Amino acid sequence: MRPMKPDPGIRVQAVRIPTENGGMSALLLSPLAAPKNAAGILWLHGGGYIAGMKEMVHASRAVDLVKKFGAVVLSPGYRLALKAPYPAAIDDCYAALLYLKAHAAAFGVRSDQLMVGGESAGGGLGAAVCIRARDEGKVSVAFQMPLYPMLDDRDTESSRDNRGRVWNTRRNHFAWRLYLRGTDRAQLSPYAAPARLTDFSHLPPAYSFVGDGEPFYAEAVRYFERLRAAGVPAELDVYHSDMHAFDMMRPDDVLSIQAAEAFNTRFADAQARFFAPQHEIQEERHDS
Q1: Backbone φ and ψ of 193, nearest 5°
Q2: What pLDDT shows up at residue 22?
Q3: How far is CA 80 from CA 140, 150, 166, 231, in A?
Q4: Closest to 267 measured CA to CA, from 183, 147, 126, 124
Q5: For the chain, which residues score pLDDT lower than 50?
Q6: What pLDDT digit, counting tens, does each position of 141-189 carry?
Q7: 3-class secondary-structure state, position 139
Q8: Antiparallel, parallel or unpaired: β 24-31 and 10-17
C-alpha cells in the first residue's frame, strides 16, 4: 500500500474546522510555493464509514493533484460510525466543504473551482456532499471524483456474494449496518446512501474508476449512468480487477499506474473546463 506519510514535495498544515459537534481536525495539503487561484479540493478518506483517518490522504490520488496541478486539498477527520452513525459523517464532511469555501481566499483557492473527491466510503460521502450542496444552495461544487464509491446500502449484482480482495459482501453488510443503525432504511435519504437518489439533475460533472470484480462495480456503473441520463457530464473507467482500491493497495502495478495516469488526465481536463461560481439560493431543494 502507498505509505501514509507526507510527500516532501508538498506542504501539510493541521487545521481545525468548527462544527456543531465542537470542532474537527483536518489536514491542508498545498504546493510548497504559495498557491494562487488554485483548485480547492475536499478529499474524503475511505474505510467503509467505520474506519480510516485523515492521514490516508497521503496515500491517495489527491497527492498528485497537489504536486502536478497545484491544487489545495482539505482532508477532514470526520466522525466514524463505530462511535457516531449517520448522519455524523455527512454532517462533518459538509461542514468541511463550507469551511473550504469560507477560507478559499486565505488558502489561495479560487472560489469558483471547489471540487470534492474521495475513495470508497469517502467516494460515497463525496457524492452525498455534492447532493446536499445542490439541495441547500450554500456552496457550488465544480467537479466531483467519487472513486470506486460506496453508494448503495442494498445488495447489487456485484456486491452480492462477492469474495473480492480487500472488500467483500460480509464486510459491506457489517459496515452498512453500523453506519445506518437507528435509521429507517425504508425512508433512507440519499445523503446516507447516494444510490437512493431520484433526481440527478444539476449535480456537478463527475469522474471515477472502478474494478469490474469488486463489490462496488455495479453501483458505480448505475450511478454514472443516471448522472449521464440527467445531462450531467460523467465518465467512468472500468478496470479488470477484483481488488478494491487496487491503485492504493498496489500502486506500482501496471494497472494502478494506468489508472493513475487516466485519473490525472481527467483531472487536467476538468481543471480547464469546469467552474461553479458561488452564489446563495434562498429556496432549498428536498430530494427523496
Answers
A1: -140, 100
A2: 87
A3: 26, 15, 19, 34
A4: 147
A5: 282-284, 288
A6: 999 999 999 999 999 999 999 999 999 999 999 999 999 999 999 999 9
A7: coil
A8: antiparallel
